[in-house]
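Standup notes
- HV: blocked on the assembly model, inputs below
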Amino acid sequence: MLLEVEDLHVEFRTRDGVARVLNGVGYHVSAGETVAVLGESGSGKSVTAQAIMGILDTPPAFVTRGSVRFRGEELLTASPERRRAIRAEGVAMIFQDALSALNPVFTVGFQIEEQLRLRRGMSRADARARAIELLDLVRIPAARQRVREYPHQFSGGMRQRAMIAMALALDPEVLIADEPTTALDVTVQAQIMDLLAEVQRERRMGLVLITHDLGVVAEVADRIVVMYAGRIVEQADAVSLFRAPGHPYTAALMRSLPRLDAKGAALETIRGLPPSLLRIPSGCPFHPRCPRAEDVCAARVPPDVPLGPGRSSACHFAEEVVGG
Amino acid sequence: MGELLEVRDLVKHFPVTRGVAFRRTVGRVRAVDGVSFSLRAGETLGVVGESGCGKSTLAQVLMRLEPPTSGTALFEGEPVFSLRGAALRRWRRDMQIVLQDPYTSLNPRMTVGDIVGEPFEIHPEVAPRGSRAGRVRELLDVVGLNPEHINRYPHQFSGGQRQRIGIARALALRPKVIVCDEPVSALDVSIQAQVMNLLAELQGEFGLAYVFIAHDLSVVRHLSDRVAVMYLGKIVEIGTEEEIYEHPTHPYTQALLSAVPVADPTLRGRRDVIRLTGDVPSPLTPPTGCRFRTRCWKAQDVCATDEPALLTRIGTHPSACHFAEERHII
Amino acid sequence: MTDQLATTLVAERPRGLFGDAWHALRRRPLFWVSVSLIGLVLLMAAFPGLFSSADPNAADLSRSRGAPSARAWFGYDNQGYDVYARVVHGARASIVVGLLSTLGVVLVGATIGMLAGFYGGRLDAVVSRIADVFVGVPFVLGAIVILTTLNAGGDAGPARIVAQVVLSISVLSWPVAMRIMRSTAIAAKQQDYVKAARALGASSRRIIGKHLLPNCVAPVLVYSTIALGAFIGAEATLSYLGIGLRQPVVSWGVMINSAKDYLRVAPHALLFPAGFLTATVLAFVMLGDAVREALDPKLR
């Protein structure tokens, strides 16, 4: 196993109180595997990634409990130098907004070369050659010229490619992609997803894909982790999850999606709103919105109910839900 | 049902200027470049396209927020772009807009009551002063908000609730048409469904016609009776929802449909994959002839020289491609 | 994600922007220090009798340059005026000049800025160029030119003297307020709620009054607080140079001017008004800073 997150708790201490953003999150990624982390805004999917990378701003964010291990090595207690090393070569991350993730005053080439020279001790010329190779790899046309251009001279899709090239520069074993295509048009999104899938396959990387888009998840994920209010409510392989969701939230989410292949009647909706993280409901956090909630749901936090190999659901009635 | 709105050859170019004291025009962004369509009472026309295709500019021009460069629009037979003064104000009651961003579309300094009541202040003839508070409460109730929250400020509501406030404001004057400019794209999946259902309900209840602009093809299909696909300022294909989604004939429509990820992992590797290369060209210098030819796998010499007209070449609906051909994608 | 989280958290609180700002201000000691100082000076300006019963215009050469004592806390100046009484009474002129100049600058500047920002185009181009011209004139030079021209008229009453100083400060400073208002108006006018109002058929007047103004006041408010302090300082500068306020008007600047020649023999006559001046200017600048931080959550 390359990357393991266990029982991660993160809180944001704000002047309005403590927001419990993560409440015991755990998932793992192996080499060559794509894990999709699915959730709506406020579910904690991005905060988990930032905690893994050690790039949360403290304050307001505090990791209060849990463990993040890369190849068995604990990261949360590692020295800042060690974390930086792992961040560069073990686990890399790409972001939704490539324009703000790239430094506007340096050329795209320079930003790739800098890492190579710093971390790999490459000469200027070697680093330049490698940067061109990387831009080529992510299919940036005329890489030899574009390596000298600045981020603002790139289109949205090209910037996303450049960021991927940058993340791949030090051959990371795990790539975390945080909503990498959300800001892109659908035809460009398809190109970028194809590219990510291909790079992941060729390098046998572990890929953590953070997204809110069920379609993207269905197209690329091996396993899916569904998050709600800072918890994992369901984990399953892609095919079984889409065939028979094991948590009422996942099921409701799927039914609320308009379809491309048929014009349906009214969409099913999830009543109410996601909870405020300052006041997460007692018991199962989804119970106030859940169509099948009973008294026990408000009283007790549901355990992870195993539903077959690699599958679990945090619902008191998981077996009934998955059975339909 | 007759035509409510008829748009002919609508063009909107934005001049690009240089210099401060002596402005000179160095180019024109061809945001909307010859768009024609009609809208019947009570129907929904979906408009899909990627960023830069001109769909939002189209909304601005239709709402007369921006003057058109040329072209006409007839609303119930009356030319819209020449309306002035009282006639323009009267027409505005018939056509309203719901905007995309629930955070910037409501004035943060006004209470919900003031926001939803503003249409009555601007058009006092619609509701006598004394009845306005009641009308506002009624509207909040219609869009599924608690009428007691009339004195709250926008920031006390979630994104979905704010979008409902925007819908209530658009609904206040009982318009015949509402232009919805990406009304659900800023919302989470579970909230998006609530707002889409609301829009569908209101349409039935008030007999509204929608021009529904969005980039999400599934959302557009769900709400639309007819669909127009836009690319670089032009409609490339227009037809009923069934014609566009089940029998697309323009290569761009086909590529667009193929690019949408489908929430069914069992279809992996079994779908017809069309991958376009590159990005959308700049509307400042669109390609000659067919604007799609630079990304099209069917492009031939004629595409660079002759601009294909939006005509019914095969099948039952018009498509702007010299080599229009049906291809089943989904 | 952090942003989205922040918005969900913000959505919790039932307060408006100003309620929010007040909440933040209340906890800042700096805010309270500056507010008490300003309160004290305002009280002095309004009711000097509360602080001193001595006549500020009673000159007695026999007590010229008398040192601070129990009878005259701040001593006497060269003419034998009671420095304490004059500092107290001088607050009024300084504050009045500061307030009126700020009012003039903000009213003129903000109005022009709002119109230029809202209508844009040719109006904006013309107004902005005019503003550039005024910004290009060095303040002191400009004030000297204006005031010497106006003063050439001969003897003037206190009201006219004050009005001249206010006028010159306003004429030279309005472009700053104008630029601030113009840029906030341009930003606000592109917001979707303005589009929605226009789609409803709202008149320009309504859009400016109901939608733009309430959303544009914050930066101008911050500027005017700091400007008030700066204008009190400007009054002192002009008075020190002998072209601003002058006898029979009493102000801190006038006092500094008349004490400057005797600095070595009677430093108290200069230090006390200068101290009050500095403290007042500082208080307004601190208040402006505190208000800006409170209104702009990004700085927090």
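- HV (later): unblocked. The first strand of chain A starts at residue 3 and ends at 14. DSSP finds 13 helices and twelve strands in chain A.
- Next: hand off to the docking folks.
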